[in-house]
Amino acid sequence: MPSPPTLSAHEAAARLDVKLATLYSYASRGLLLTLPDPTDPRRRLYRAEEVERLRLRQRARSGHGPVAADALQWGEPVIASAIATIDHGTLRYRGFDAVTLSRAATFEAVAELLWSDATSPLDLRWPPAPPPPDTPPHATPMDRLALTVARLALDDPMRFGPLPDADRARARRLLPTLAAAAAHRPPDATIARTLAGPDASEPLLGAIDAALVLCADHELNASTFAVRVTASTGADLYSALLAGLAALSGPRHGGMCLQVERLFAEVRALGSARLAVGQRLGRGEWVPGFGHPLYPAGDPRATELLRLAPTVGDDAVARDLRSALADAGYPPPTLDFGLVALTDAAGLPPGTSLILFAIGRLAGWVAHALEQRQDDVLLRPRARYVGPPPRELPTSS
After folding, report:
1. Is residue 388 part of a domain?
2. Catalytic residue among 70, 188, 236, 292
3. Which residue has the higher pLDDT, 100 or 47?
4. Are residues 242 and 294 located together in one domain of the fold?
5. Model confidence at 71: pLDDT above 70
6. Which residue range is the domain that position 274 belongs to?
7. Same domain, yes or no, for 56 and 132?
8. How many domains does the chain have?
9. Which pTM was predicted?
């Protein structure tokens, strides 16, 4: 993947129309993340998209158009929701700290909390799930998820009914079945057991369950917005979830996990995290898995996953990478890095990090689809036209 465009300090300050001292203040306050300049370790670079995001936020005081543009680019929330929020660096599900929930409740119980604000019993277990339908042997886990959702929709002629209780019942069957499809094995007693495998240790089962909880929701991210837009049209739950899966697969979203997995593979191939990072920096490449705009002080989900990683196996690669990137001036790791650190330490197959992300986030998507239907509003943003002015077709002679 090409490296994201970067700007020098002078270029970033000019783009924002501020002095260098103001730019440095933005960076110190976490409003802008900086990257090391591979050609001069004394200089810092600024990601162009983050500078543009901040510029739009500054313009948001001057009218509806800038406000709308800013809202769609990491701005303030544009949809009222009672499901999740990011509050001063803490992710909360219906008021509960997500990290605390990951230590105290099962993924199934947290899903119920997201769907209906039901908090008891915390040891809730769902009925056994049917085996997933067959998918082509060459299909990737994400392929299997999408194909399985579509197949289950075809087998559900009553899927167009918008009753919340019926959709919650669908979700209780759907999530375990999708976990089995992604893992390519029969469903087990819990989703964590299905994903971890029949021989998984208790520490690994607990860590997988915690990872699913930490992935369950993240307020209005790209895939959740896709789900809500689809649900707002009156589409059935399966269609809304397919929209979420499509958005999640992108390399700037859930697909980031696969890029971090490649970084781990480079470290193993070269035998050194510093060598792998140094080569990337020398080529002017961005190193994935570090720095989240909503968590300038560090992603608490990644912190918890990195705490769990050594309980399931050898996390030396993750530790060495964190050290190398910290020395290079990178910000703290993100959820994507935490998921890969956990699955890598446990020796799980490549792609497992993205599976955990997808299965966990499905719980949040169901909650948002239900909430959007209750709002009964069609989501239809406006575009700010920047094309040619009105013009006429030439007349024929």
Report:
1. no
2. 292
3. 100
4. no
5. no
6. 256-345
7. no
8. 3
9. 0.82
